[in-house]
Amino acid sequence: xxxxxxKSKNLDVFYGDKQALFDVNLDLNEKEVTxxxxxxxxxxxxxxxxxxxxxxxxxxxxxxGNIEMDGMDxxxxxxxxxxxxxxxxxxxxxxNPFPKSIYDxxxxxxxxxxxxxxxxxxxxxxENSLRKSALWExxxxxxxxxxxxxxxxxxxxxxxxxxxxxxxEVILMDEPCSALDPIATAxxxxxxxxxKKTYTIVIVTHSMAQAVRVSQKTGFFHLGKLIEVGKTEKxxxxxxxxxxxxxxxxxxx
Amino acid sequence: xxNEHTVKSYEEELQFLKDxxxxxxxxxxxxxxxxMDAVIKVDxxxxxxxxxxxxxxxxxxxxxDTQIMNLLVKRAPMAIDLRETISSLKISQDLERIxxxxxxxxxxxKPLPLDLPDExxxxxxxxxxxxxxxxxxxxxxxxxxxxxxxxxxxxKDEQVDDLTYIAMESVIDFLSxxxxxxxxxxxxxxxxxxxxxxxxxxxNIAETVCYLVKGEYLKGSRPKGKVIQE
Lengths: 253, 230
Prior knowledge:
heterodimer, A: alpha/beta, Rossmann fold, four-stranded antiparallel sheet, B: mainly alpha, Methane Monooxygenase Hydroxylase, Chain G, domain 1, 7 helices, elongated
């Protein structure tokens, strides 16, 4: 049995007067990939942004209900958000490397979190992170070149390397492959498979096929509500809810 | 009633596949019934027509295969659409096999003498009628997505097994009366066995329909005829 890493209970999110999430109860298992699917604006990204308190940066956003990681209340006012984000890394839709060298892209996080005090420690973190994100062989001889000089797929793997450089426990991925070609997508998916041995991963995706390929658990959101959640295989072969079926088979009006 | 797909052509492709399968099913029914008639009436004139109709069924099978390949490549179907697509593949295979068995039965008519006694053919006729009814019911269950009806067909296969045994007995009885009957009796035994095997393919189809409707396979082992169990 998998342990529950993150647990949301009666989670509501409001942007001003508009409610974006309604009473979401969702458990994310440790060292598993959970895929979140649903039409645009259904609340998938809002949900994952609750996990690392990214919604804090939006003034009008209000989060109620409960969301816990290993039993710790993520919404606790006294919680150190920087420490939380060290544990919960994030990768976005478009690769967004810093305008720095490949090396600095990776070493920046560990440095500000006080990890890797000597050059050789940092070198090690950079190499390990790039190896884990399957980018090392491609960039080892050009670490001082700008991150932005890499191809789109490489940039995305660089962002994943950057996320894992601070040794997080959870990685959030918000449509990480939507800007990538099929080969770069395949490399990221292969990487996700590898990373799930170490990290708990949540991926938002619009590709049903990708959700089937990479995840063990899938949640379907619609209009801010979690409609159905279950084993990925079950959701895509024989979902219980008609709305889920209509969505994944392309029958949404 | 499920909603229609956002992509109209996808909807049409799935409907086209279902229509093809239904047409293939009704062709298989006519062929099975014609082959049974030919055996019971020892009607040698209809043999060619039955063999020809098997070619039609085979063509349907490859047409359906192509449709399914296209659907898989173009649409990557999910959930009910995936089950519909995969079920069509399986059902068309079983129908094709039933067609082959009917053709084989039609070929068995050639060596039969025209004056076969009624009591010999009575049980074979009953078996044929039961298998026909089973095929008709299972195709109905497919068209109407009727789980209960498919399960009923699945359960009734034990009657097919029992009748097969009885029909075999009567042929063997007849055979034992006179060694001269050996030649064509063998053909009748094969014809009987073919009907039983057609029954098994119908049971496969019933299982597929159950999976199609509910998304899970029937539990437990297939019902076996009492005689066979002993």
